[in-house]
Automatic annotation (TrEMBL):
Residue ranges constituting the Phospholipid/glycerol acyltransferase domain according to the UniProt record: 86-208
Reaction(s) the record says it catalyses: a 1-acyl-sn-glycero-3-phosphate + an acyl-CoA = a 1,2-diacyl-sn-glycero-3-phosphate + CoA
Family: Belongs to the 1-acyl-sn-glycerol-3-phosphate acyltransferase family.
Lineage: Eukaryota, Viridiplantae, Streptophyta, Embryophyta, Bryophyta
Transmembrane region(s): 12-35, 47-65, 303-324, 336-355
Name this polypeptide is given: 1-acylglycerol-3-phosphate O-acyltransferase
GO MF entries: 1-acylglycerol-3-phosphate O-acyltransferase activity
One Gene Ontology term, aspect cellular component: endomembrane system
Pathway(s) it belongs to: Phospholipid metabolism; CDP-diacylglycerol biosynthesis; CDP-diacylglycerol from sn-glycerol 3-phosphate: step 2/3
Classification via InterPro entries: Acyltransf_C, Plipid/glycerol_acylTrfase
SUPFAM superfamilies, per the entry: Glycerol-3-phosphate (1)-acyltransferase
Keywords: Acyltransferase, Membrane, Transferase, Transmembrane, Transmembrane helix
Signal peptide limits: none
EC annotation from Swiss-Prot or TrEMBL: 2.3.1.51
Length: 381
């Protein structure tokens, strides 16, 4: 991260890091003293704690950087969003798509009930990865012989979830980059498939598993299409820490789970067709810079995340003043404090790097990886 971004990220990172450690400690206690007696109570407790932690990141986009998320959907679907369990699929367009999804969930009152399928390394990220692990996110090693059972067990464990549940799945399996698009286009052309223009070729195994295991108690699929408005540059964590705004457009197509086919091959085809629809929709967005103003749903920016952040800031500042006064009277104490600040800066940097798309220096590797992954799945399908 560049100098200005680092200076701004430090106080924000300190607040998130120490409040996150406090939440993680409470989660450990809930595992020890609540989960053995009631999984339902454990989940309710964790949903509240996740609201308190993740609202800080929503504040970062909403209030600090002024990132605007515009939602497009029909009124009938809008009336149901946030009131039912759903399987959420989306293209993976930017570095902060996951935060955009959290903003929409928070607006609809179900932030604490969001769950996702993530790569296994994510759970080792300081604070945020640990909180996801305690909150029963599903983590994959990208080895289907292992992941098939992990997915099946993970989905089955969510049955009986106490409040609105959103299970998010990035079906493309990786973030969109120009190099990966070129790889996907080459594969599609060689395989006789429709060549994508704005999305990658979906990897359907995880989606098929999700539909087969969730359809019993999840009534709908939310097919989200994410596009970045031409008004401002793409959102990145560095831009967000600097307080630089962006505008993100999200189209939501609600599909009743009952309308999806039954067989695995048919479900996979439905997924491919859905991404072709996304591609066409993104074509129109490229021309109009909108998903259709008649579908635009204005959503007010809530005060909740701001109140939570102000409360955390006051609490942590008071605790720091009380704890650090005796420490700062000695050189050893000052050295210890500087070490803590350095550790927090490293953790923030790790978090930011984990959200960034691959740079051009790895373009060739990205192409090879994408081709191999798509080709391998196509053979197994």
């Amino acid at each position: 991260m560049e100098g200005a971004g680092s200076l701004i990220a430090l106080p924000l990172g300190l607040m998130f890091f120490f409040s996150g450690l406090f939440i993680d400690a409470l989660q450990v206690l809930s595992v020890l003293f609540v989960l053995p007696f009631s999984r339902r109570a454990y989940r309710v407790v964790n949903m509240v704690m996740m609201e308190l932690l993740w609202s800080e990141l929503i504040w970062l986009l909403d209030w600090w950087a002024g990132v605007k998320v515009k939602v497009y959907t029909d009124r009938q679907s809008w009336e149901l969003l946030g009131k039912e369990h759903a399987l959420v699929i989306s293209n993976h367009r930017s570095d902060v798509d996951w935060l955009v999804g959290w903003i929409i969930a928070q607006r609809l009152g179900c932030l604490g009930g969001t769950r996702a399928v993530m790569k296994k390394s994510t759970k080792f990220l300081p604070v945020i990865g640990w909180s996801m692990w305690f909150s029963e996110y599903v983590f994959l090693s990208r080895n289907w012989s292992k992941d098939e059972k992990v997915l099946r067990d993970g989905y089955a464990s969510l049955k009986g979830f106490p409040r609105t549940l959103w299970v998010a799945l990035f079906v493309e399996g990786t973030r969109f980059t120009k190099a990966k698009l070129e790889a996907a286009q080459k594969f599609a052309a060689d395989a006789g498939l429709r060549v994508p223009r704005h999305v990658l070729v979906p990897r359907t195994k995880g989606f098929v598993s999700a539909v087969e295991n969730l359809r019993e108690f999840v009534p709908a699929v939310y097919d989200m299409t994410v596009a970045v408005s031409k008004e401002l540059p793409d959102p990145t964590m560095i831009r967000i820490f600097r307080g630089q705004p962006s505008v993100v457009h999200v189209h939501i197509r609600r599909v009743p789970m009952s309308e999806l086919p039954q067989g695995g091959d048919e479900i996979a085809k439905w997924c491919h067709d859905a991404f072709q629809i996304k591609d066409d929709r993104l074509d129109e967005h490229e021309k109009e810079n909108s998903f259709g103003e008649e579908l635009y749903i204005p959503i007010a920016r809530p005060l909740g995340p701001l109140i939570i952040v102000v409360t955390w800031a006051i609490t942590l500042l008071a605790a720091a003043w009380w704890l650090l006064r005796p420490v700062l009277t000695t050189w050893r104490g000052v050295a210890w404090l500087l070490g803590v600040l350095l550790a927090v800066m490293i953790c923030v940097q790790v978090l930011i790097m984990s959200t960034q798309s691959e740079r051009s220096s790895t373009a060739r590797k990205a192409k090879q990886k994408q081709l191999a992954a798509i080709g391998s799945e196509d053979k197994k399908d």
